[in-house]
Amino acid sequence: MQYDQVQHLVNDTPHTNWIALLHKPSLDHPTIRKLIHDLFYDYHTLPLPEVESVTRLQSTLGHAYGIEVLDTPLAKAEHYELECQMVGGSEAILNIFGQIRKVAATDAPVLITGESGTGKELIAQALHIRSDRSRGPFIPVNCGALPDTLIHSELFGHEKGAFTGAHRQNIGRIESANNGTIFLDEVGDLPLELQTYLLRFLQEKTIERLGSSKTFGVNARVIAATHVNLAEMVTQGAFREDLYFRLNVLNIQVPALRERVEDIPLLAQYFFQHLKQEGNSPARGFSRDALEYMSQYHWPGNVRELINRIRRALVMGEHKLITAEDLGLEEQLAAPLIYTLEEVRSRAEKDMLQKGMLASGNNITKAALSLGVSRVTLYNLLDKHHLRR
Prior knowledge:
By secondary structure, the protein is α/β, with parallel strands linked by helices. The chain has 4 domains: 3-70, no CATH class; 105-253, P-loop containing nucleotide triphosphate hydrolases (Rossmann fold), CATH 3.40.50.300; 264-333, Helicase, Ruva Protein, domain 3 (Orthogonal Bundle); 341-384, Arc Repressor Mutant, subunit A. The protein is built from 18 helices and 11 strands. It has helices spanning 3-11, 30-39, 51-70, 91-104, 120-129, 148-156, 173-176, 192-204, 230-235, 241-247, 264-275, 288-296, 302-316, 324-327, 329-333, 341-359, 364-371, 375-384; strands at residues 19-23, 42-46, 110-113, 138-142, 181-185, 206-208, 215-217, 221-226, 250-253, 285-286, 321-322. The strands form 4 sheets. Strands 4-5-8-3-9 form a 5-stranded parallel β-sheet. The protein has a two-stranded parallel ribbon with strand order 1-2. Keywords: ATP-binding, DNA-binding, Nucleotide-binding, Transcription, Transcription regulation.
């Protein structure tokens, strides 16, 4: 029987723990060793004449049965919030852990930078938990998700009657974080006008609600995060230089998942164990090819993408071992590595359009001027690349 045949047999019996019985010389065969390592719960060598060997086999069978019983998920199993977990043993992530321990002891502002999905909010939470403010509130704000018309009120609050629809007083997020931590995610998306108010708070530790002339103090530590280069935005006039230096007192650069490949198997096993509690998946782990594909994949969505792919595999997979196909990685890695010149030009054009719009605060006139095109041309290019204006 070939390796693939045995793998299909094991995968088709997800609620069975397989134990191999074979003659000792068979263990010298590389394929058999790999097969037992990947697919079998345990193995025993033949023959089994001694009472001791039979007893050991009986014990193994009993243990395998017990593990199967324990593997049935409990209805009230403890649920873990995966987004609050930081796992890794690579030099890159250990360096982050060291920085967290040092930075948490201070009360200065922190700027966390890194790609989307790398876990910047996890680091902000870790800083808060390890600080003297841990008993106070941790208030996260996604600056990029708030409409421009509401962001002032959301951050600084408003008085009753401050604007149409303001039927009562509203306490802003910064005020809510008093004696705790305010986490400003995607701080680069803040409009320039709001940047001025935030700078004033950082300098004076006071705020003023919308519709009020009264200022009052708020004791909150500011931790900000962004996936864009704020220094470049300062150069382009899209972000205040004085605010940048106020926020960037302490800096933590979060590595992308592809920069700590050695953590991928550990992260995968960790998330697998916790996500499995969400349902009744037959999977017991990952096949060797799945782990190899995960190590080769680029992970543009970083840890967030890893979690989502494992969750999908547990829901959709029907085998005992999660495969690369279950994770949707075979198709991704089969994509061509060489692109046509037209594809390269299109990618570069889209990238510059996004940067131009970001730097101009989505102002068409400013973006067209910085990109060296007319407003009409810019509108046509935005439509061509399906970019939101």
